[in-house]
Amino acid sequence: MLITVLITASICALFSLYKQFQMLQQNSYFPSRYIGWLKSSYTVYLALEAICFCLSSFLYTYEKFLLQEILLVILLAVRIFLCVKCYKTSIKKLVFTSRIKRLICAAVIILAALITVYVIMPDKLAGEICLMVCLMASIVSPIITLAAYYLTLPVEKAFSLYYVNDAKKILKSHKSLTVIGITGSYGKTTTKFILNRILSEKYNTVCTPHSFNTPMGVVRTVRESIKPQTQIFICEMGAKKKGDIKEICDIVHPQHGIITSVGAQHLDTFKSIDNVFSTKFELYDAVNKNGGGICLANIDSDEIKSRTDNAKNAVYFGEGTKFYADNIKYGASGSSFDLHLDGSTVSVSTRLLGKHSVADILAAAALSHALGVSDNDIKFAISSLKPTEHRLELKNFNGSLLIDDAYNSNPEGCLEAINVLNSFEGMKKTVITPGLIELGSKEYQSNYNLGLAAAKYCDIIILVGKNRSKPLCDAIAVTDFNTDNLYIADSFADAMKIYTPLCDENSVLLIENDLPDNYLN
Amino acid sequence: MKTNVGVFFGCRSVEHEVSIISAVQAMRAINRDKYDVTPVYVAKNGRMYTGENLFEIENYRDLSKLLKECEEVTFVRNENGVIMHFLNTKLFKKKADVNIDVAFPIVHGTNCEDGTMAGYFEFLNLPYVGCDVASAAIGMDKAVFKDVLKKADIPVLDCVLIRAREYGLNKEEITEKIEKEIGFPLIVKPVNLGSSVGISKVKSKAELDEAITLAISFADRILCEKAITDLREINCSVLGDADECIASVCEEPFMHDEILSYKDKYEGGGQNSGASKGMASLGRKIPADISEEKAQEIKDLSLKTVKAMNASGVVRIDFLYDTKSDKVYVNEINTIPGSLAFYLWDASGIKYTDMLDRLIDLAFKRQRNRDNLTFTIDTNILSGVNFGSKGAKGAKM
Predict the structure, then answer these.
(1) What pTM value is reported for the model?
(2) CATH 3.10.180.10 is right for the domain spanning B159-226
(3) Domain extents in chain B
(4) N or C: more exposed end of chain B, with fewer CB within 10 A?
C-alpha cells in the first residue's frame, strides 16, 4: 500500500515541477537567476505548498484503509488543480522543448531512484530519508529541479557545444559571407531591422529574428537561416555582463559592427558604466582584430563621446562627424530629414517618428553606404520602413492625425513622444494619457514631469482615470495651462468621446501609454 | 557552401529539343566555383528526372536509355526551403533529398515559358530566374502583348484577333473583315507559340483559309496582321528587370524563307552539328547593319517594353523594320530566348558566365522584394471567431 502512496506522491511531485521548470526556462536556464526568483517568491510558494505537505504527512501517519485512499485522491486533485491553475494564469507558458523533456526524464529517474532505495532498504535510515523526500516531493521540488538540472548539464553542454561548432563550421565554409554585429544599450533591435531592410535592396541578407541576441539564439539563426546564397548576416548581440559580446564575436567573427549607444542598463550585473562600455566595445575589438572592417559608434551617446580615446579606429556617426542627419521635419506623412553620408546627401522621408528613429536610420544608412548600397536604394528602403505597432505609429483619425504610442511605458520615451508631438508645428496638439505605472518610488516624479511637459507643449490634455492621473493634475496646476482645456475621463473610450468633437484636419493627437482598463479607476 | 541551382528544361512543348540545347549550353557555362548545378529534365509527358548524364548533349540521342539512367524526382517545400525528393522508394537505392536554392527555367514555348513554370516555383516559394507569372503570360500571348505595348505607346502592328470557333462558324464574315481591316499581303499566326511554328504569309485571299487552318491547329486564338513588304527583322536582348535593365547590341537574322521559320531557326545551319547549337548557330549579322540612330531607337523601345510588361531576367525582343517607311514595330518577345541570347551579350561585352551570374542575382533580388511585402496576416482571424456550439457549419463571421 505504501508503494501506491509513494508513487502517487511522486506523480504529485511531477505536477508540482511544472512551475519550477517554467521558471527555470524563463530564467534562461541560469540556476543563479532561478534561485533569485525562488528567494523572491518562496514565501508565497511555501504557503501554497504547506497544504500539500500536510496532506502528505497525514497519509504517512494514518494507515486506515478508506481514509488513505480518499486522501490520496484529494492530494492528487489539489496538485493537478494547482498545476492547471498555474498553466492557465501564466502569460508565458512552459514550452515543452527537447531540453524540458530531458529535464522531466531526469526528474522521473530521480524519483524512481528514491522509491527504489526505499523498497530495497525499508527499515534503514537511507530508506527512511528517501521515503520522506518522496512524500515531501512537492515541497522539495526546487531541489529536485536543481538536481535534474545538474544531472542533465553535461548532456546539455555537449549539445550546445555541438551546435556552436556546427554554426562555426557553417560560417567558415561560407567564404563570401559578410558578418555585421550590432550591439548597444538601446536601439539595437530597431537598427538591426532597418539595416536589414536597406541592405536587402542589394544583398541577400539574414538577420537574427525578434530580439534573439544570446549566443544560442545566434547559433540557431546561423544553423537554420543561413543559405549558400546569403551574402550578409546581421547579428544582434546582447550583453548582461562582461565578456558576453566577446563570446558571440568568437562564434561569428564580425567584419563590421554598429554600437548604437552605451547607457545605464543592467547595472546590477555590470556594476559600472565603464564595464558596460568595455563590454559593448568588445565588438569594436573583434572588428579591429578581423581587420579591414568598419565599426560605427554613436557619438551622440554621451558615454561613448566621453571615451573616444579608447576606440581610435572606430568610425563615429552623429553630430560633428561625416555621417550625420539634419533638417529634421515632422508632418502628416511622418518625418523627413537629410542624411549626410560621407560627402553625399540623401533626403529621406519615413513614417517612423522620434529622435531615436533618426539615429537608428542614420546608423543603418551609414553602414549600408559604406557597403556600396546606392543612395536611391537607401532612400527607397527608408521610405518603406514600417513602425512597430503602437510605438509612435502615425495613423489617421477622422481625417486628423493620430500618434499611437500606446505601448510606451518608460519615462524618457514618454517625454520624447511629447517632443515629437510638439514638433508638429502650427497644429492643434492633444494628448490622451493615464500616466505611467509600476515605476515604484519614481512613479510620482515621473508622472509629475510628464504633466509639466504636456502642459508646456499641448493645447488640450485629456487624462484617463481620476486617481491615477493625480500627479499629472498636480503638475498641470502649477503651470499656467488653461484648465478649460484639461479634461478628466473615466475610461479610454470616454476620452475618445471627449476628443472626437474637438478635432479637425489641423489636429494631432498623441495616445500615450494607454493602459488596460483594470488599472483605471 | 555553394548555391544549388536547379536548371529546368525540356517540357511538354513543341520546342522541347531547343530547350535541351539551350540548357546544356547554360549548364556548361555556369560558374562552378560559385554554384552547384542540378539538372532537372522535364520529359515530354511532364515527368521530371535528374542525373549526371543530363549534362551531355550526346546522351539525348537515345532518350529512353537516358531516362533509364536518371532518377525521377519531385519538389517539395519543407521547413528548410525547397527540396528535390527522389521518387524511387527502393530501400537500398533510396537517395537523400537535395536542397534547391534557386530555380533556373530554360524552357521554351507553351506549358512552361508562358508562366506555367513560374507559377510552379511561386507556389513552392522558390526563387527563380526570369519573368514572373504575369509577364511571362503576357509575353506568350501575342494579342495581349500588343495591347499592353499599345498602352505604353510602343509601336506595334494592328491586328485582327480570331477565335477558332468563330472562324469555323462565320468564315465569310471574318474573311471579309480581315480583308477590309488588314488587307493583303498579311501574316497569320497562333497567339501563343514561339519559334515561328504555325506562322504563314498570305499573299491573296485564296491562300487565307489554308493559313488559318494551319494556325488554328496550334492554338484556338490566332491573329492576322499586315505583312511588311520591305521588311528587315532586327532583334535586341534586354538583361535586368523593370527597376534596372540594359539592352544588348542588335542583330539581324538572315531570312532564308520569307519569314524566319522553325526550320530556319533550329534545323538550319547544317545537318547534325548545327542543330545541336540552336539559336547560336543561325545565320545572322551582329551587330545589325543599321544606322546608329535606328539601333538606339530599337534599344530604347526594348527597355521600354521590358518596363511596360514588368519582365525580368534575359529576354529577346524581335522587331519588324519597314525600310520603306523607316519605321520599327515590336513584333514579339521571347521571355526565355533560345540559347538565352548569350551570343548578343557576348557581342555586348558580357561573358555568358557573368550573364548567368547576373540572372541568378536577379532571382534572389525579386525574392527579397517579395519578402518585404505582406502576403499573410500573422494573426489567425479564425482564432477569435465563435463558431457556436454546432461548429463551423453555422458560424456567422
Answers:
(1) 0.86
(2) no
(3) 3-128, 139-155+230-371, 159-226
(4) C
